[in-house]
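Need residues for this backbone.
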């Protein structure tokens, strides 16, 4: 028969241990806790309650005891700490907190050591230990953490495994062009490949990583070489610097070109007898066309002293001199003619065409001369850098998508090192580390969503959360934004008109404002849940992101549709963030050499190629990308002849086995 203890018996048992292991005075002080025990606290919960007490809670009990006894008991708090250390010492390691600062505090209390004593025993400065405990900084050396584990009587790795992210490292990287990517690569590769921070690597290991990174930049494409040479001589003339007449002309072109089909704006222009474009131009195309004019006008003013205006576009000789000037900026061994030049000629053809704006604005057109120039350029040949150049080494592997998923896991492990439990993050006290953790949480969610749903870049930097419609912990519609929740499952939602190819047959059955949903939890999707020190799902992280991370990044002040990914609201910022995080892929063990920083569009190439290599079907890849089979085959998927040949025999062999 088991006889249950009373709270008095539990307290007395602990008091006797204090008398043996410390002194009788501590035991006497500790026994007074019976006078201030919380109502309803039984013997079964006493140890857990005592272990949960912090400094503030102990002082509150001391104040209560002083009221009961009518005088202070100075050593009561010290006695409580001693008793708490005894209880903690009996706790198994599985109860150690997941974040490093809390785990270190737990281990110190469990060992009944002071910070000063631990500093002496581990050869780690006391000031450094206080910084780690407060979360202001993280250890930069595994060797130092292993000394702590030894001094605290912990098994090897008990603390180190809670450091997916190490503290500040000195890499000695001075190349400003790629410094952020290189530093991230070296930090992550040291952990992913060797299991230690950079500062603990052997000299040979450091040299190997530095050499790998240096060789990476030798794989630059002609496009990258042209860009690096061209930026030395900037020449564009921003729209804001155009003369008033040129700005008025541009606004006239915008009104002419952008009036949507079946819109009131278009109907009113036609009713007034004004010209409209036969096919409306999308906003992104207008932006690109304006950038073309900014470059052309910049050349005309800065090099020739000509006043910007549409009449300059009617001078074919001027266009030819502009192209020749552009090409002279490059080294002789770099092919100069690119899609930038052919795109500019295509823009001129549109302006000079029978239904173009130059004719509508009363200018003389020279369509045949523009076409003749186009033919001459075609004979020279256009140098096209494929959109997948940065990730081409990944596309050579059997499953390119594997590397994006493994890179995501590495990012999530680094995030765990900063916040502990991904579902219940504890953000660092240091403002700098806290901002780093918030940004990494945002970018990890973005990377995961990009991998699962490889939409175009504008769907991410333009994504909004309708703060009026969203309800914390409840289902809500997207409203004016792009995120909703139904049945506890979050989903992205975009209107038909927000897709680049909205006019294609893929979206034919939809109206302009109909929503296309992309669920963030789906048992049929292979990559919406992952094993990262236990199973975690994108749906769970999005919930935490909305509750804990998004409000802090937003900083308040928004009442309507706020950015879903704050501080990434432009294509430039989005590309920069994804490019920096892509160092996680380059850092993976066994990754093909030469992976360059890549942006969000590369995800479409990787996913398309992975699907085609696995299924042999361009149609399957087109279904995921919501694009045409022709576009996938021509632009996105890299299905080399050798891959096609191997897949054909594999499919044949599988068919034979099914027949057997």
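Answer:
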């Amino acid at each position: 028969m088991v006889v249950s203890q009373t709270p008095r018996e539990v307290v007395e048992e602990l008091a006797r241990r204090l008398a043996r292991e410390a002194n009788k005075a501590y035991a006497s002080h500790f026994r007074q806790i019976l006078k201030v025990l919380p109502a309803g606290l039984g013997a079964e919960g006493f140890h857990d309650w005592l272990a949960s007490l912090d400094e503030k809670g102990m002082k509150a009990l001391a104040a209560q005891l002083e009221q009961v006894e009518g005088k202070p008991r100075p050593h009561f708090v010290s006695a409580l700490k001693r008793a708490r250390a005894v209880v903690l010492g009996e706790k198994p390691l599985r109860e150690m907190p997941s974040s490093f600062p809390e785990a270190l505090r737990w281990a110190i209390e469990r060992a009944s050591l002071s910070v000063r004593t631990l500093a002496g025993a581990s050869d780690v400065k006391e000031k450094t230990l206080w910084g780690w405990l407060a979360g202001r900084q993280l250890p930069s050396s595994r060797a130092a953490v292993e000394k702590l584990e030894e001094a605290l009587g912990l098994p090897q790795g008990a603390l180190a495994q809670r450091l997916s992210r190490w503290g500040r490292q000195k890499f000695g990287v001075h190349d400003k062009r790629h410094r952020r990517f290189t530093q991230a690569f070296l930090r992550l590769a040291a952990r992913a490949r060797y299991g230690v921070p950079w500062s603990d690597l052997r000299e040979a290991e450091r040299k190997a990583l530095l050499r790998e990174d240096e060789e990476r930049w030798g794989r630059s494409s002609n496009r990258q070489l042209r860009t690096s040479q061209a930026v030395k001589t900037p020449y564009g003339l921003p729209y804001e610097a155009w003369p008033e007449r040129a700005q008025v002309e541009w606004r006239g072109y915008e009104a002419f070109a952008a009036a949507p089909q079946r819109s009131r704006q278009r109907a009113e222009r036609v009713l007034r007898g004004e010209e409209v474009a036969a096919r409306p131009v999308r906003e992104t195309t207008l932006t690109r066309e304006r950038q073309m004019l900014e470059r052309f006008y910049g050349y005309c003013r800065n090099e020739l002293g000509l006043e910007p205006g549409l009449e300059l576009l009617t001078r074919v000789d001027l266009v030819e001199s502009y192209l020749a000037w552009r090409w002279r900026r490059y080294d002789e061994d770099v092919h100069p003619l690119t899609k930038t030049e052919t795109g500019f000629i295509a823009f001129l053809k549109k302006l000079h065409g029978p239904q173009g704006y130059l004719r509508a604005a009363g200018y003389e057109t020279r369509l045949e001369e523009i076409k003749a120039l186009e033919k001459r350029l075609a004979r020279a040949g256009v140098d096209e850098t494929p959109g997948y150049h940065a990730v081409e080494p990944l596309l050579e592997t059997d499953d390119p998508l594997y590397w994006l998923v493994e890179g995501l896991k590495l990012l999530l492990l680094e995030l765990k090192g900063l916040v502990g439990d991904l579902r219940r993050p504890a953000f660092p006290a240091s403002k700098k580390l806290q901002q780093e953790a918030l940004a990494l949480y945002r970018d990890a969610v973005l990377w995961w969503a990009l991998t699962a749903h490889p939409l175009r870049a504008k769907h991410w930097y333009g994504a909004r959360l309708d703060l009026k419609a969203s309800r914390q912990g409840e289902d809500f519609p997207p409203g004016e934004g792009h995120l909703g929740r139904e049945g506890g499952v979050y989903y992205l939602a975009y209107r038909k008109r927000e897709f680049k190819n909205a006019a294609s047959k893929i979206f034919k059955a939809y109206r302009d404002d109909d929503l296309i949903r992309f669920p963030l939890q789906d048992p049929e999707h292979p990559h919406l849940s992952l094993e990262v020190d236990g199973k975690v799902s994108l749906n769970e992280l999005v919930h935490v992101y909305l509750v804990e991370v998004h409000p802090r990044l937003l900083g308040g002040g928004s009442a309507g549709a706020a950015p879903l990914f704050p501080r990434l609201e432009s294509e430039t910022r989005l590309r920069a963030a994804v490019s920096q995080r892509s160092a996680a892929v380059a850092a993976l063990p066994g990754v093909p050499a030469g992976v360059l920083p890549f942006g969000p569009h590369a995800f479409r190439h990787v996913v398309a190629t992975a699907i085609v290599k696995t299924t042999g079907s361009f149609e399957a890849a087109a279904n995921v990308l919501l694009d045409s089979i022709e576009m996938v085959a021509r632009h996105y998927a890299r299905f080399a002849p050798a891959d096609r040949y191997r897949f054909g025999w594999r499919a044949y062999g599988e068919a034979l086995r099914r027949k057997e």
